Here is the input.
Amino acid sequence: ASSDTFQTYIYEHNRAIVPTAAFFTVYRPASATKLIDAQSMTIGSDGLLTYSLNSGHNDIADENYKAIINYTHNSKTYCLTLFYDVVNSRLAKVVTDADIVVELPQLKDNGWKARGEADSGSTTTIVDAGLKRYEDDYFTGGLAYSVAKDEVREITDFVSSTGTITSTAFSSAVSAGEQYVLTRPYTREINRAFEKIEEKLKQMGRRAHLILDPYDLRELHIYYATAEVCKGLAIDNNTLWWHLWKEYEKAGDDAFLSMEFKYDASVDGYIAGGEKGFAVNTTRVARR
Here is the structure.
């Protein structure tokens, strides 16, 4: 067992709200036993609710721990129920922006960009109040281009509240009025593709965390992530990006049905016997 952090947003009218108070209760799976009883949650400025779980909260790997959040918003109290799993190991993501660009080179000069002029800066920062409309880490992992310097640097952090981009060092300090171009990474698309894979596995009676080798999913993940990027760039169904979206989505679906992976059906942390080369399109269901 290890410590971890439970975190979630609460949405109303298509936006995350910021509760004035939130209290966290957790029950063991299929039990009235409370692990946590109405403890106060930390509320971020953007509405992110967090609670630090200690090792005692995670000492039994099982599915469907029930979390109840009682929160106050606009002087009214509400209740949200969520379920989560405690697992022996998480399945890692092993796909990066570079993998997607290698798969589809046309994406090298495309993607989502933001242009502006710095209010201030340094050799490792660009500060612009106009960037405050983006959430924390929106650009983290992407690229920062200084027009005046004609230099590109990797973005290592973004803080929304101050509109501050942190990057690897430019050759000289970024000055007020200096023009820049930011390219956000494909993190969102990679995450959405991973969630899609998890959901498809769940529908077929599999649990993603029981796949012990993340590289078994790598090709599939690249196909779905590339499809997500193309979908975001598609304007209508007559564009190249729309056709590429459909092409890569089909490639992902085909790869999913033929995929084999090392699946820990016995939940013992080892692969042996029939667990080797376990195909997703078989009728076998994981034993818990």
